[in-house]
Design brief:
Blueprint: H1 16-23, H2 40-51, E1 54-55, H3 56-66, H4 75-87, E2 91-95, E3 101-105, H5 107-115, H6 117-135, E4 139-140, E5 146-147
Antiparallel strand pairs: 1-3, 2-3, 4-5
């Protein structure tokens, strides 16, 4: 997790309605705004797993932290995406802490990331922009480095 962004749980001073609208991608005038386009979450999760083998909850928290609490993917999105990535051969199950099922990237998954490097980098740039708008404090890059 990245320390330059508080999670949504740490932002007690924010008005609840502002926090709710940010998390769900709603603007004041009722227009919706998608954090991820179709297929983006797959690339984000694959890149995060490439950086560090993880289980579903860790991925949810990492994405939430990278977006400065502005969005947290639901388990109903994350776990089916993990299943899809595993079925495609891009990740493989590994032993994680306790009974949690962890995942590590495969060579095929690394090849997919390499072929889609420009798209993956653009997604992480958008994530950093959302985080900056949310907190105004820090950029988090796809390689995990941060800059204030």
């Amino acid at each position: 997790m990245h320390s330059c962004h508080p999670s949504r749980h740490d932002r007690a001073s924010s008005p609840p309605e502002a926090d709710h609208s940010e998390r769900h991608g709603r603007h004041r005038h009722g227009r919706s705004s998608r954090v991820f386009e179709q297929g983006d979450l797959r690339h984000v999760m694959l890149a995060l797993i490439a950086a560090k083998p993880s289980h579903g909850y860790e991925l949810i928290k990492e994405i939430e932290d990278r977006l400065a609490g502005a969005y947290s993917p639901s388990p109903g999105l994350v776990y089916p995406t993990l299943t899809l990535l595993e079925e495609l051969g891009y990740i493989a199950a590994v032993q994680a802490e306790g009974t949690k099922k962890g995942y590590a990237i495969t060579e095929e998954g690394r090849a997919v990331l390499e072929r889609n490097k420009a798209a993956v980098d653009a997604i992480f740039e958008r994530i950093a922009a959302v985080a900056t708008r949310s907190s105004g404090a820090c950029w988090i890059f796809s390689n995990g480095s941060t800059q204030r």
